[in-house]
Specification:
The chain is an all-alpha fold and 102 residues long. Helix content is 55%, strand content 0%. It folds into 2 domains: 52 residues; 41 residues, no CATH class.
């Protein structure tokens, strides 16, 4: 399993102020199972989707050439002007995925 994904799962959980035990009620996964998945696991796609839902998040494939833009956006490293904010509200994926949003 990609360590980066496991780190992102843990980071998201802590950002939400959740402990591993809290994930049991949010996912139906026991604390012991969740702890193992977060630290060294290799969960199935279905399990990742359950965990993502429990973290109020979604799984998404991002083209390799756009990953750096998404990370910058998520880390607030991209400065957004007022005009850009309006565009982001109406077309949030413009230019990130190679063109206009469908």
């Amino acid at each position: 399993m990609n360590k980066s994904l496991l780190q992102q799962i843990k980071k998201r959980r802590t950002q939400l102020g959740l402990k591993q035990i809290d994930m049991q009620s949010r996912t139906g996964i026991s604390r012991q199972q969740y702890q193992k998945l977060e630290s060294q696991g290799n969960p199935r796609l279905e399990t990742l989707e359950i965990i993502a839902a429990g973290l109020n998040a979604q799984l998404m494939l991002i083209p390799d050439d756009k990953v750096h833009l998404i990370r910058q956006l998520l880390n607030d490293e991209i400065k957004v002007t007022i005009e850009d904010q309006d565009d982001l509200m109406t077309k949030p994926w413009k230019d990130l995925l190679g063109g206009e949003e469908p």
